[in-house]
């Protein structure tokens, strides 16, 4: 605040430049993400073979989850930069949805890793919950667990507006609405529990599939691809965990360099929330030969008919 008082012209110019740089980074990534998401969801929805495979159902679920997260967070990001104030209840709704979808990502990654484990070890006797028509029994618990943090946040009581929630205008940001130290401690504790559970699930599936690959009694190509996919899940989980440390990094930036305080949330969001979601369609979708073939035909506006050769090839996801 002292620098703003002493050099208001320079500070305003620097602030405008920083805002312009942030927008020029986020918006192109956002539109690239939307393009691939729409293309992939259209491909998944237009081909019946994808509806009957739990792997593709989970992948579509991840795409929808990440789309909701990115749309909400980019909207909040732009509104906050513009210092646009809107109703408290709308702000809480956007934060509620973005929190749920953000927390749901690690659970989806763990679920996809477990699906690879089931596909490798039980190819002919897949448990009922992991079949395409029953996969909702696996998806629903991940969504319910993801509700824990926003519900606890509401129960602890955010900073309530003085007037009606419908008419009170706020500058929407999570920390602006509830900066309770108790809430920060609860969040970090829950994030630690979530990370440990998901990390154990991914580590378990990776080790078991690795041991299966060494036994060399099944299709080594399929096992190797499954192993690589689980490893990618672990990498994306690591990025998610880094974003869990946002409360810690923000507090550390205040102590080490006060001028970084406003930039740390953006760097956390860009590196550990936005970029992983933009890369997910490329990592998981474009690696799959069957899905990639259908997407290429959709982009080139070719005939929707796919040759039997492509239809019969095993997925590489």
In short:
The chain has 317 residues and is an all-alpha fold. It is built from 14 helices and two strands; from the N terminus they run ααααβαααβααααααα. It is globular, with a radius of gyration of 22 Å.
- Biggest sheet statistics: 2 strands, antiparallel
Q: List SSEs in N-to-C order.
A: HHHHEHHHEHHHHHHH
Helix content: over 70%
Strand order of the largest sheet: 1-2
Global outline: globular
* Arithmetic mean of pLDDT: 77
Overall strand count: 2
In the predicted model, the low-confidence regions spanning at least 5 consecutive residues are: 1-6, 302-317
Q: What distance lies between the first and last C-alpha atoms, to the nearest angstrom?
A: 51 Å
The number of helical segments is 14
Description:
This protein is mainly α and 317 residues long. Helices cover 77% and strands 2% of the residues. The protein has helices at residues 2-6, 8-46, 48-51, 54-81, 88-121, 136-146, 148-156, 174-177, 181-215, 220-244, 246-256, 264-285, 289-299, 308-312; strands at residues 85-87, 169-171. A two-stranded antiparallel sheet has the order 1-2. The N and C termini lie far apart (51 Å). The model is unreliable at 1-6 and 302-317 (pLDDT under 50).
């Amino acid at each position: 605040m002292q620098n703003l008082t002493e050099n208001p012209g320079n500070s305003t110019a620097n602030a405008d430049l920083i805002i312009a740089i942030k927008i020029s980074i986020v918006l192109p990534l956002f539109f690239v993400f939307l393009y691939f998401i729409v293309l992939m969801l259209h491909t998944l929805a237009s081909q019946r073979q994808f509806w009957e495979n739990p792997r593709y159902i989970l992948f579509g679920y991840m795409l929808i989850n990440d789309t909701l997260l990115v749309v909400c967070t980019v909207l909040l990001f732009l509104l906050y930069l513009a210092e646009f104030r809107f109703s408290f209840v709308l702000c809480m709704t956007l934060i509620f949805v973005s929190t749920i979808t953000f927390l749901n990502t690690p659970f989806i990654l763990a679920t996809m890793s477990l699906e690879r484990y089931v596909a490798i070890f039980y190819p002919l006797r897949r448990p009922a919950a992991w079949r395409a028509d029953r996969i909702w029994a696996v998806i629903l618990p991940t969504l319910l667990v993801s509700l824990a943090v926003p519900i606890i946040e509401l129960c602890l009581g955010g900073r309530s507006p003085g007037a009606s929630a419908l008419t009170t205008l706020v500058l929407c940001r999570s920390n602006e609405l509830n900066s309770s130290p108790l809430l920060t401690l609860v969040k970090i504790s829950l994030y630690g529990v979530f990370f440990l559970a998901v990390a154990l699930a991914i580590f378990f599936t990776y080790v078991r599939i690795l041991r299966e690959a060494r036994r060399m009694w099944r299709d080594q190509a399929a096992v190797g691809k499954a192993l690589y996919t689980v490893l990618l899940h672990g990498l994306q989980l690591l990025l998610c965990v880094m974003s869990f440390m946002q409360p810690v990094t923000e507090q550390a930036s205040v102590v080490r360099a006060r001028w970084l305080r406003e930039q740390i949330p953006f760097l956390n969001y860009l590196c550990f929330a936005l970029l992983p979601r933009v890369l997910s369609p490329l990592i998981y979708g474009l690696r799959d030969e069957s899905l990639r073939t259908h997407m290429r035909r959709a982009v080139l506006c070719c005939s929707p008919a796919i040759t039997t050769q492509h239809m019969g090839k095993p997925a590489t996801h």
